[in-house]
Write a structure and sequence with these properties.
TIM Barrel, three-stranded antiparallel β-sheet
Length: 342
């Protein structure tokens, strides 16, 4: 058992299960966030996904605002905003406003994946046709300057003020799974979340953790997939169907998708006649609450993880609730409650 505490947080895609209607499903999502606060989880993040029938978290900032208004302690944020689609100024305005509404509770997590199918991306970015393409690193630099109100006088957007000004700016976290993204986060002075729910390669993870720690003296957050149940067999059965495929188009573009049908549709919408879809193994933990706790303890000991972002791999809200409660009970079974509530 580790001697140092660590925190647990949650990532939610706000899925609308097949056969459910959106209002009921989203009301259940809000109830899960409220339960997370009651159970002592540290953060509750919403991912950005679109262009799929089950997608409920198409605008994570809207869900963040709604949940902040219905909770009082838990941190709430995006995991993450797909910055390539947006003007950094608008993202800064939105999250500065959220931070002013809920001081000290807002997280701005940022990623670079498309977050949806090509046609949805084209529709989202229709007003940007013909605009100058910005490198992702440049957009991150702009976002940081707008969020903290420190735009250089010679910058092309000098004089643009992202109001209102919060007492405490939103926490900024870059999501990724590479040395490059970890180094970018360190350069910005941001926190970093390693996306183990997409890439669970232990050697790469160790290298990225070590590099970020060398540059900053801090450890990344670690996102991973975990499903806890009172029955080990049932937990493994529910988690077993989880698969990801890394789709690569001939133009070099790559994206992670949940199944081969989605891979074929992505290629079709991209106009690609040739593509590859290789299975990849996300970092998945499945078992009893005690088994999940022991696995987290081991990762904490090996990598020094101070906070885990748990992605529960089921859309059914009752099953998600049960998994949250099972894991919380296991963490409370000994002194480990401090890990969750600290």
């Amino acid at each position: 058992m580790p001697t140092d505490p660590y925190r647990l947080s949650l990532l939610d895609k706000a899925f609308v299960p097949e056969g459910a209607d959106a209002p009921d499903a989203l009301a259940s999502t809000v109830a899960l966030a409220q339960l997370a606060e009651e159970l002592g989880f540290h953060r509750y993040w919403f991912a950005e996904h679109r262009g799929m029938a089950m997608a409920g978290s198409t605008a994570p900032e809207a869900l963040v605002a709604f949940v902040l208004a219905r909770t009082s302690r838990i941190r709430v944020g995006s995991g993450g905003v797909m910055l390539q689609h947006y003007a950094p100024f608008k993202v800064a305005e939105t999250f500065r406003l959220l931070a002013a509404l809920a001081p000290g509770r807002v997280d701005l997590g940022v990623g670079r994946a498309p977050g949806g199918m090509p046609q949805a991306t084209r529709a989202l970015r229709a007003n940007q046709e013909g605009a100058r393409p910005d490198a992702f690193a440049d957009k991150l630099d702009e976002l940081e300057a707008f969020v903290v109100g420190n735009l250089p006088e010679d910058h092309r957007w000098a004089g643009a003020l992202a109001a209102p000004e919060p007492v405490t700016p939103p926490a900024r976290i870059l999501l990724g799974a590479s040395l490059e993204s970890a180094e970018t986060a360190a350069h910005l002075g941001w926190d970093y979340c390693y996306a183990g729910h997409f890439d669970g390669d232990p050697d790469r993870m160790a290298r990225v953790f070590g590099r970020f720690a060398d540059l900053t003296g801090r450890r990344p957050l670690l996102a991973l997939v975990a499903f806890a149940d009172s029955s080990e067999e049932r937990a493994r059965s529910l988690a077993k169907p989880l698969r990801l495929y890394r789709v690569r188009l001939a133009n070099g573009q790559s994206v992670n998708l949940p199944d081969l049908a989605a891979a074929a549709e992505f290629a079709r919408q991209s106009g690609a006649t040739e593509y590859t879809a290789d299975p990849i193994a996300p970092d998945v933990l499945a078992g009893t609450g005690e088994q999940i706790r022991d696995a987290l303890d081991d990762l904490h000991d090996r990598l020094g993880v101070e906070e885990f972002i748990i992605d529960i791999p089921v859309a059914d809200h009752a099953q998600r609730r049960g998994a949250m409660e099972t894991l919380a009970r296991a963490m409370q079974a000994d002194r480990a409650i401090a890990r969750v509530a600290a």
